[in-house]
């Protein structure tokens, strides 16, 4: 069971702390416990209720009427409320509430609807990515368990694989070639899967090697495949003090190849010395802009 401060609730729901206090004091929306020093502590049920209330209020419902509904009535109203494809905050809040309940059918339905309305790439950027960022906040407060995280990750993985499989095949002889991989011990695959889809959708050919690949294997891969670029995402490995060595080894194994280095470990290394043909995009949108630019050049 999680414990949240009011600032945690603000970050997770998008509702200002001042408004949360008013809703709590005037309408009894939340019922926090208090520490011996009179500090409010909120629980999982408070967060779920706040997310659902925020969703309804974002749809134009008056807080005074929402406050009179039971939890079951609020949940039913959230499910039946009208959909606005560009109301990203509402969609993220609905996903968080479904995740906390381990409601797999609802999670799948919400993500499928976002993809249908927005298109795959926009749904990932505007709904799935903010959703994952909120989950990160929940991790920091100790309020997400491994089952909840794995449920979300596996549904998103299924969506990405299905969307990629639906793309037309690309002949390697007629396209820029990319190698995508995660280093040995790295299992966080969602960003790399999204990159794989984005590149294929733009007409690039991708040799997708996936998770947990020893870096030494890349030398033979680059000799045989002759890629334009090698791309990796560093989330949990290598250790921070070994990132420079890993980048240097990558450059040795794949000389004269563009290196695309993405992920929090890369961004955290402010003193990282990059090889001449290495690029370090800070955001996924920067990576997509690079793919668009290269796609445009290949079509000239």
Folded structure, characterized:
- By secondary structure, the chain is α/β, with parallel strands linked by helices.
- It has three domains: 1-82, Multidrug-efflux Transporter Regulator, Chain: A, Domain 2; 83-166, Methyltransferase, Methionine Synthase (B12-binding Domains), Chain A, domain 1; 172-298, Rossmann fold (3-Layer(aba) Sandwich).
- The protein contains 14 helices and seven strands.
- Strands 4-3-5-6-7 form a five-stranded parallel sheet, with helices on both faces.
- β6 (258-262), α13 (264-268) and β7 (278-279) form a beta-alpha-beta unit.
- The chain is elongated.
- The N and C termini lie far apart (57 Å).
- Identify the CATH architecture of the largest domain: 3-Layer(aba) Sandwich
What distance lies between the first and last C-alpha atoms, to the nearest angstrom?
Answer: 57 Å
Would you list the SSEs in sequence order as H and E?
Answer: HHEEHHHHHHHEHEHEHEHEH
Spatial sequence of strands, sheet with the most strands? 4-3-5-6-7
What's the number of helices?
14
Low-confidence stretches: none
Over the alpha carbons, how many angstroms does the gyration radius reach? 22 Å
Sheet with the most strands? Answer: 5 strands, parallel
Number of domains: 3
The CATH H-level homologous superfamily of the largest domain? Cobalamin-binding domain
Query: Percent range for helical residues?
Result: 55-70%
Structural class: alpha/beta
Provide the CATH topology of the largest domain.
Rossmann fold
Shape: elongated
What is the top-level CATH class of the largest domain? Alpha Beta
Mean pLDDT: 84
How large a portion of the residues is in β-strands, by DSSP E?
Answer: 5-15%
Number of distinct beta strands: 7
């Amino acid at each position: 069971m999680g414990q949240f401060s009011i600032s945690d609730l603000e970050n997770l729901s998008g509702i200002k702390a001042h408004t949360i206090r008013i809703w709590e004091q005037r309408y009894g929306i939340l019922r926090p416990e208090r520490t011996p020093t009179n500090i409010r502590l909120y629980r999982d049920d408070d967060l779920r209720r706040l997310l659902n209330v925020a969703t309804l209020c974002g749809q134009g419902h008056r807080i005074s009427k929402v406050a009179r509904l039971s939890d079951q009535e609020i949940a039913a109203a959230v499910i039946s409320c009208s959909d606005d494809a560009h109301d990203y905050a509402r969609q993220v809040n609905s996903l968080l509430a479904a995740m906390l309940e381990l409601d797999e059918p609802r999670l799948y339905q919400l993500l499928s609807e976002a993809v249908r309305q927005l298109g795959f790439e926009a749904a990932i950027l505007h709904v799935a990515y903010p959703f994952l960022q909120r989950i990160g906040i929940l991790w920091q407060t100790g309020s997400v368990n491994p089952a909840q995280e794995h449920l979300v990750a596996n549904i998103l993985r299924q969506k990405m694989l299905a969307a990629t499989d639906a793309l037309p095949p690309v002949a390697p002889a007629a396209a820029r070639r990319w190698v995508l991989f995660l280093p040995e011990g790295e299992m966080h695959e969602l960003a790399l899967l999204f990159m794989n889809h984005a590149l294929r959708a733009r007409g690039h050919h991708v040799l997708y090697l996936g998770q947990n690949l020893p870096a030494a294997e890349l030398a033979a891969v680059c000799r045989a495949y002759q890629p334009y670029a090698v791309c990796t995402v560093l989330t949990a490995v290598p250790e921070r003090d070994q990132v420079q060595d890993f980048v240097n080894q990558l450059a040795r194994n794949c000389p004269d190849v563009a290196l695309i280095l993405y992920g929090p470990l890369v961004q955290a290394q402010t003193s990282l010395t990059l090889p001449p043909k290495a690029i370090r995009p800070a955001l996924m949108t920067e990576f997509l802009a690079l793919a668009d630019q290269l796609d445009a050049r290949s079509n000239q």
